[in-house]
Each structure stands twice: as C-alpha cells, then as structure tokens.
Design goal:
The complex is a heterodimer of chains A (383) and B (125). Chain A has 383 residues and is an alpha/beta fold. Helix content of chain A is 39%, strand content 18%. The relative contact order of chain A is 0.20. In chain B, strands 6-5-4-7-8 form a five-stranded antiparallel sheet, with no helix packed on it. Chain B has a three-stranded antiparallel sheet with strand order 2-1-3, with no helix packed on it. The relative contact order of chain B is 0.23. Classes of the chains: A alpha/beta (383), B mainly beta (125). The complex binds zinc ion. Chain A: This is Acetyl-CoA C-acetyltransferase.
Chain lengths: 383, 125
C-alpha cells in the first residue's frame, strides 16, 4: 500500500474568536491550500472534522458550506464527528481516501466555535456524549478526569504535584507558540492553589474552551514532489473504541483504546515506542498525559508521572511531549485539536517549529474522544 | 419518567455482569438474559470526585463516586451521586432512591429520551 503524504498544513489563532464556524473553517482551509500552492479546484475530497456545530451554533451541513466558500466544487465532502477525536478521525478518513485511490488530493479542515456559550452550557454540550446513566447524575468530562486522577494517585503513589508539572511544562511550551490561546508560564504553586474543579483536579489541570481551526492537505507520496519539496508522511495510523460507559472498564487507569490504536499504528509504520522522537498527546486534562504516555508504550503503567518529574518529556528532554503547548495552553476547539496536533508535528519534522524546534525524524499524535471512548494514533515521519 | 428507574445489573448466559445493561454482553456479545437487583446490596467506593463546575440543572457541588458491588463472587461497578462529601476510597455505601437527580428541563438532552430518577450512594455507618 502506498504511503500518504502531507503537503500542506495550517492552523488559525486559537482562543476567543469573533469568527463563526464557517469563517473559521474557510480561514484554515485557504491558508493550507496556499501553504501547498494548490488550487481548490484540484481537490477530489474535502473533509470537515467537527463535533457539534449544530448544537453550538445552529449551523449544520458545514462541509457543503466550506466547499462552496473555498471554491472547491464539485469535490466530494463529508463531516467527520468522533467527538473530541474528530480531528484524528479526519486524518484517518483522509488517509483512507488517498491510500485507497479514491482521491488523489484530499483537504481536511477541523474546527469548532465554542466560546459564545457559557462554560456550563459548553460543558453540557460535551457531556451529551455520555450514557444516560451517567448524564442523569450530572457527569461531565472534567468529573471523569477527577475520578480517574484520584484513582491513579492512590494506586501508583504519585504526588498531586506531578499533575501540576504537566500543566507547568505545557504552559512553558505554549509561550513560544504564536497560535496558542495562553502564552504565559505558570508555576506549581499557582496550579496547586487554583480553584477546585473536580477534586483533586484544579482549574489549571484543565484545558480552556476555545475557538479555532486547522487544516492538512494529503496526496499519494509518489505525487508529493510535484507540489512541494516540504512534505511529511503518514507512516502509520490506527483507531480503536472503548466502552461508552466509563465505569465499565476493567482498570480505570488504563486507556484501552489508546493501547489498541497505537499498536495498530506502530505495526503499520513498522515502528516501536523507542523510535518516537516527539509526541503530541491529548492533554484535555493533565491526568490524560500520564495515561496516554503509558498506553502508547513510552513508559510502564503507573510510571508516566515519574517521566514528567524527571524532565524526560520537557522540550530539551529525551522525549518531548506537547511542544505545541498541548491542548492545555494552545486550547481545545474540539474538531480542530487532532488536526492541530498533526500541524505541530509537521512543523517539527520539517524543521519549521522555530523556538519550539526539537530534533525529530519520527513523531506520534494521540487524539482522544470522550474520556478515552475513541482514540486515533497517528505516526508521522520525515519524507 | 419519574419513579420508574430500576437499579439492576444484567447478566449473560456466560455469567458476565454489566451495569447498565446492553442488548449484547460487552465481553462475549451474547444477549443478556438475566437481571440482578442491586438496591438492597452494599458496594465499595473505587474512587470519588466533587465536581464544582456543573452543567445547567445539576446540583453544585456534585459529589460522585464509582462503586463496586460483589454479586455472588463476581464484581460489577456503577457510577452515581453521593449523598454527602467526606467519603473515601474503600468506604462501604448503599443505594438510596432519589426521584430527580438533575433538572430534566435545564440540560441539552431531550427530557423524554431518558430517565431522571435513580440511586445515590450513602455511607453505611
Ligand atoms: Zn458475556
């Protein structure tokens, strides 16, 4: 099977934006086509990763709207919703479209417009993905994070401060990301003294609510050079699904779908965890960075917190994680986040990451929907 | 839909338990054909949280726990609100009926699509 190349990438400013979903998607889509020097008229497929434009804004049918706004008619369009892993699922769909031969040029745009809602309303839109027995008790995604963090700290004797250090690291990285929502350092004391949101987790353990979009342009590897010399390759990708009801998992501290999706991705890429030079993990909550770093095989179960304590995952460490600032400081516009992870890795592999640059030839992204309900793992490499 | 909620684990012919029930057993994909009432049993707290940022119609703060029941040597977990704070991992709790766990008119989910009553967990003295 031929490998798939990424020949263009873009992301918009993340944060509180005046633009609505159509404008956000068009902004990233245009910038991505410009990055590759490709005409929208040449697109075979155009995909939109988005969780809830209907619920947030009353705008459905966004792929059709984007195709018309971009001048991409008559490209085939579809919307990809996998809650907050919609972006990763979009990469999977775009990869399938090119690898299968159905499309020679696929543009993927992920985006979400959220900040016009109150935090309580936005939390409820996201919580609507839960099972009725969870929803009726008022379960939210942050409350799952609190439940899981308490169990993790209890089981592995990890100090509460180790979670704070994830936030400190990712905020430090975000300072050098011009697209990030927050570009300010925080210290452990600030995190530990911030208001409780879902005990034992506090405000700084959580990513913000964000507007933004990001885009990627895919073609067969054999055709990439006709567009650009600057491209990367998707060498492996896998997706997996865990229980809908979170408490039905055997071990609440193991993200099964991250284990399974990463095994699929490593097998396709013929890579192992030791080969990964840089990673973007879905740190919607600080605890999730520990769980994913263990699930994708970087560290033993229950040891992920030690790596953060020892600086292994710092930008100048052996395995930098979330050089972009992660969802934590960059922001988390649901449908955009998985696409923006790949945007960061694309820049890292091409040597275009500026002050965030690390030494990397092979990169991994893990994008999580629900509370680990759906996970996409993508491995990207230098051409 | 108030007053109708059962609190039952569901069992397949191979003896696997789940709460809630599913058309097919999540472990072996056989149809589940038996139920086990959980209302008169006690459970152990696996983990808990207190959520202070709650959605529309949800009490604030919201104390929540994942608990584990022992059913004739097999375990099955459930999630739900706690009646009080101050509960710790390992504590024993029992289900207490509540006719409305959150305001069905306030959230995004269609009121008629699900039940809103159910069982909170209360510490056993
Ligand atoms: Zn079974």
């Amino acid at each position: 099977m031929e490998r798939v190349a990424i020949i263009g990438a873009s992301m918009t400013q993340f944060g509180q934006r005046d633009a609505w979903i159509r404008e956000l998607l068009a902004e990233a889509g245009e910038a991505c086509l410009d990055d590759a020097g490709v005409s929208p008229l040449d697109l075979d497929h155009l995909y939109v990763s988005n969780m809830a434009s209907g619920e947030f804004e009353g705008q459905t049918g966004v792929p059709n709207a984007l195709a018309h706004d971009l001048g991409a008619l008559p490209a085939y369009t579809q919307r990809i919703d996998q809650t907050s892993s919609s972006g990763g699922a979009g990469i999977y769909a775009a990869w399938q479209s090119v690898a299968s031969g159905a499309s020679d040029l696929t543009l993927l745009v992920g985006g979400e417009k959220m900040t016009h809602e109150t935090t309580a309303e936005a939390t409820d839109v996201i919580a609507s993905l839960t099972h009725p027995v969870e929803y009726k008790h008022g379960l939210t995604l942050p409350s799952f994070a609190g439940l899981t963090a308490r169990r993790y700290l209890h089981e592995y004797d990890a100090p509460r401060e180790s979670l704070a250090k994830v936030a400190v690291k990712n905020h430090r990285n975000g300072v050098d990301n011009p697209h990030a929502q927050f570009r300010k350092e925080v210290d452990v004391e600030t995190v530990m003294e911030s208001p409780i949101v879902a005990d034992p987790l506090r405000l700084y353990d959580f990513c913000p609510i964000t507007d933004g979009s990001a885009a990627l342009l895919f073609c067969p590897e054999s055709e990439a050079k006709q567009y650009t010399d600057e491209y990367t390759v998707v060498s492996g990708i896998g997706g997996a699904t865990d229980t809908h009801v979170v408490h039905e998992r055997d071990d609440p501290t193991v993200m099964g779908a991250a284990v399974e999706s990463s095994e699929l991705a490593y097998n396709m890429a013929e890579r192992e965890p030791e080969d990964i030079d840089v990673a973007e993990l879905h740190d919607m909550f600080t605890i999730l960075e520990f769980l994913q770093s263990e699930a994708v095989g970087f560290f033993e179960q229950g040891e992920g917190w030690k790596a953060v304590e020892e600086g292994v995952t710092d930008r100048d460490g052996d395995l930098p994680i979330n050089t972009s600032g992660g969802l934590k400081s960059k922001g988390h516009p649901l449908g955009a986040s998985g696409v923006a992870q790949a945007y960061e890795l694309h820049q890292q592999l091409l040597g275009n990451a500026g002050k965030r640059q690390v030494d990397a030839e092979v990169a991994l992204a893990c994008n999580v929907g629900g509370f680990g309900n759906c996970v996409i793992t993508t491995i990207m490499e230098q051409a | 839909m108030s007053g109708n909620s059962k609190f039952e684990a569901h069992r397949c012919p191979n003896g696997h338990l789940s709460y809630p029930g599913h058309p097919r057993c999540p472990e072996c994909a056989e149809p589940q054909d038996e139920t086990v009432d959980l209302t008169d049993r006690t459970a152990e707290v696996v983990t808990w949280t207190t959520s202070t940022a709650t959605p529309p119609g949800v009490r604030q703060p919201n104390h929540i726990a994942i608990v584990e029941f022992d059913v004739d040597g097999d375990s099955v977990r459930a999630i739900g609100q706690l009646t009080t704070d101050g509960v710790e991992i390992g504590d024993e709790v029992r289900p207490i009926y509540a006719d409305e766990l959150r305001d069905p008119d306030a959230g995004i989910r269609e009121k008629a699509s699900q039940e809103w009553d159910g069982y909170r967990f209360e510490p056993v003295e």
